[in-house]
Write a structure and sequence with these properties.
The chain is of the alpha+beta class. The chain has one domain. The protein has helices spanning 14-19, 30-40, 47-58, 122-129, 139-144, and strands at residues 68-71, 80-82, 88-92, 95-100, 103-109, 115-118. The chain has a six-stranded antiparallel β-sheet with strand order 1-6-2-3-4-5. β4 and β5 form a beta hairpin. α2 (30-40) crosses α4. The longest helix is centred in the middle third of the chain and has 12 residues, at 47-58.
Length: 148
């Protein structure tokens, strides 16, 4: 990926991209980018500043995915978490919806009082908590209605 150019990455949906530490595109998703920027920080930072923070929150010193523990009951819809086996889930209302590369497959109820590894960067979780409306692949809603 070349600095100052488009990121040549594409994701299943916005929730997946946000969990990977990316933001909406400032060019092709301008309205979503502006909304993200407004909810991400009151100072409405420019894309470069957001990208620097997200990059720092994305990787640890060993260049591995940076995560942190949090009670799943306190996380807003649109955040990604992983269970103790590393299986990724999308938080969606009162359920956790299992993510797989081709879409969301099934769901489980949010376990009360359980801590999960949060995959979505902390600053993005804050933006979602403040009202940024994350978009999901259509399979998320279908999977949320299925147990598994």
């Amino acid at each position: 990926m070349r600095p100052g150019h488009y990121t040549e990455l594409f994701f299943l949906d916005e929730a997946t991209a946000l969990a990977a530490g990316h933001r909406p595109c400032a060019e092709c998703q301008r309205a979503r980018y502006n909304l993200f920027r407004e909810t991400w920080a009151a100072s409405r930072p420019q894309a470069d500043e957001i990208d620097r923070v997200l990059h720092a929150e994305r990787l640890n010193a060993e260049r591995r995915k940076r995560t942190y523990l949090a009670p799943v009951s306190e996380l807003p819809a649109g955040v990604f978490v992983a269970d103790g086996e590393g299986i990724p889930y999308l938080v969606l209302d009162e359920r956790l919806v299992r993510w797989e590369p081709g879409g969301y497959t099934r769901s489980i109820p949010k376990p009360p009082g359980a801590d999960f590894q949060v995959l979505t960067p902390a600053s993005t979780v804050r933006a979602i908590s403040l009202g940024y409306p994350v978009t999901f692949h259509p399979s998320a809603k279908t999977a949320a209605s299925r147990s598994g």
